[in-house]
Amino acid sequence: MRRVLYTTPDADPSRTVSVHDVEEPSCPEAGVLVAVEARPINPADLLLLTGRHVFTPTLPAPVGIEGAGRVLAAGPKSRLRVGDVVALPRGGTWAERLAYGDDEVLPLPPDVDIEQAAMLCVNPFTAVGLLEGLPEGATIALNAGTSAVSRLVLSIARRRGLRALAVVRDARAVDELLALGAAAAVVDGDDLAQRLQAAAGAPIQRGLDAVAGAASGRLFDAIAEGGDLIVYGLLSSSRVELPAANLVFRDVTVRGYSRLRCYAAMTPARRAEIGAELVALLRSGEAITPIAARYPLERAAEAIAHHERPGRQGKILLVSPPTPGAT
Ligand SMILES: NC(=O)c1ccc[n+]([C@@H]2O[C@H](COP(=O)([O-])OP(=O)(O)OC[C@H]3O[C@@H](n4cnc5c(N)ncnc54)[C@H](OP(=O)(O)O)[C@@H]3O)[C@@H](O)[C@H]2O)c1
How far apart are CA 285 and CA 290, in angstroms? Predict the structure, then answer.
C-alpha cells in the first residue's frame, strides 16, 4: 500500500514528503483495519514538516493527524463491523490503510459525508474544547476569524447562546463572518482592544488566539479582568508577545490548548458525546468545512504547495477512492 512519508527536512514543506510502497498493517484482535478515504492538510502538519512542532520525529516519519474511512476488516474481538464509517483522530493518516484499536477510532453514522468526517477530529473538537467552561451569554473574541476553527467556534457559540467577536486581517471577510453568526467582526490593528470592547458592549471573558506574536498582546488587552486568553495556534510567530504591565497588574489568565492532549484525556463516552453534537451540526449545515481542492495521495507535494498559496479558500484534502470490500 502507499504511504506519504516525511523524508527530507526543507524550509519548503512541499519538498519534504514523498510517496512510498510500504507493508500493509495487520488487523488487531480488538480493533480494525481501515481503508482511509480522505485526510485534510492541517496547519499542524506544516508545523511538523517545517520543524516548528514540539514533536521532532526521527525520519522517515508518517504524516497526517486525522482522516476518515471505512472498516475493511474487523478483528474477532472488535465491536465494529466491515463497512462502518470511522473518523481517525491520529496515526499518520496520509496512508491508504491503517490499523487501530476499537477505542482509538470515532464510529460515525453510515450516511455521514466522509470528507467532512475526515475533518471532524481536529478542528471541530478544538472548537468545542476552546469554548469549554463558558456560561451561556458569555462574550468572547477570536482572531484568525476566517479559519476553519474560527468558523466552527462561531457556529457552536451561536448554538450555545455565546456572543463571539471575530478579528480578521481583511475587511472583505467581515460580512461573511457576520452571516455566520459573529456578533461583530473587526480588522486587526493597533487599537484593536478599544475597538473590540466598543463592539462587544459587555466584558470580553475569553480570547482565542491562533496567531501568536504581537497579535496575542492585542487580543489580551481586550479581555476583561477575571477572563482568560487561550493560545492555540502560531500562525504568525513562534513567540507570544504580551504587554508585561498588563500581564502583571490585570487579572487575566494566559494558557495554551492542545486538542491532542485533551482528546487523549477524554473517555470514549465523552468523545462519542462530542462526536454526536458535531454530526448534528454537520447535518444542519452549520459546521460544514469548505473544501478548496482534492488531490490523490501521490500528489501530496503539490497539495502542500496549494495549501501554502495565499488566498486559499477552504481545506485541501488528500483523497483515495473507496476500497471494494469496505463499502
Ligand atoms: N492547539 C490545537 O490543538 C489546534 C487544533 C486545531 C487547529 N489549531 C490551530 O488553529 C489555527 C487555525 O487552523 P485551521 O485548520 O482552522 O486553519 P485554516 O482553515 O487553514 O485557516 C487559517 C487562516 O488563518 C489566517 N492566517 C494565516 N496566517 C495568518 C497570520 N500570519 N496572521 C493572521 N491570520 C493568519 C488565514 O486567513 P486570512 O488569510 O483570511 O486572514 C488562514 O486562512 C492554526 O494555527 C492551527 O494550528 C490548533
Answer: 11
